Amino acid sequence: MTSSHPGHSMLADLARVKDARTGRLSSWDQEGKNQDYWLIPANSTVRLATIEGPGCITHIWMTQFCRRVLGAGLIDPTAGNYVAPVFEIHNALGLNWEVADPHYYRKVLLKIYWDDQDTPSVLVPLGDFFCTGHSMPGNFSSLPISVSSKPEERYRFGGSAAFNSYFQMPFGKRAIIEIENQNDVPYGQYFYIDFERYEAPLADDIAYFHASWRRENPCGGWGPNLQTNSPETNIPNLDGKENYVILETEGRGQYVGCNLSVAHFQGSWWGEGDEMIFVDEDTWPPSIHGTGTEDYFNHAWGMQNNAFLTNGSVIHESIVPGYQVSYRFHLTDPVRFKNRIRVTIEHGHANHLSDDWASTAYWYQTLPSPKLSILPVEERLPTPPGDRTPERVARDRLTPEQARQIDAADERFRAYAELRDIEIEKKLEITRRRSAANVSKGN
Which residue intervals make up region (Disordered) (predicted)? Predict the structure, then answer.
């Protein structure tokens, strides 16, 4: 029997005839009217689809809304039962009084189960799965994921957007897709789940799609008050033990990318951290060692406000101060592993920064899946904007070298401030002389 083998090449595959049947499960109004969304209850899990295999999910489209009503409106709530829930009416007009829940993209979980497993292989906040970090959408189009948002909704906490995933997700026996709403209010979910079913079983070399979410808020930096790229931060990191971990799993497969959301209010910049990817039996140095955060995301000299097919910025700190969302997909250069993999990156050179980092890792591996976990909802909420001066790390938590570097930074700043005060006084004296001259000339 010939086995089914999803994938091959995106364009070449269009010319290949397959023993497959295409299908879709969606939120369409099965009564034939126009209430084409499902209302997902608060604190509840709803199954969107169960698909018997063998098969492959080829595309997922989603758009959603979550509003908090602040007061009684003048529009009859029953009048909107069979129409699209569009309320583009300013609250100041008095017809309605409601706001979008700003953080619901982090309160809703996307969960996908493969075959007979009772734990999910995909466990990610809905927004972060689609590279919508900080619960704040931005327009971009990569090969596996795209987001489309209207200008007035872009860069807003909880702004509306259309999400697409084109990751191929093959399965042998079945696929189960669920939404868990951990919010205290219901929300509306539109969706398409497009798939193929095959007559023959999957090939033996097919791995299963996985995605998981992590966060450190804050990362455990040793010198968060030190300026990035300053001499004092330039100490060696020769083990990577304190790095931020994007992915750690055991099994066989390939890591195919991530998105990273950073909230940084320290005042310099959040990068300079090297990626270090430990493959199989790696100790030190790892098989893959990079040269800086911006370099891992295939930018340079900081991050640019560009979004490309396999790398880019969804949110750039120059547009939304303090916030960055970046992505890197290893579509032509997957990182393959036979036994285990640990994907890490420094938070600032030698891990000196203490920013809010959250990431989604995407990878394929053979079953069984690792037992994925996720932080409780209150620990997933985005960091609000604001100017914050990082607190110093307690001295008893520092290594001797780190303590010396912080002392050196203090001494350098003291000497710098003294020289600057002298120069300021010189300029003030010039101002006084010029002011006196203008007064005398005017008499």
Answer: 377-405
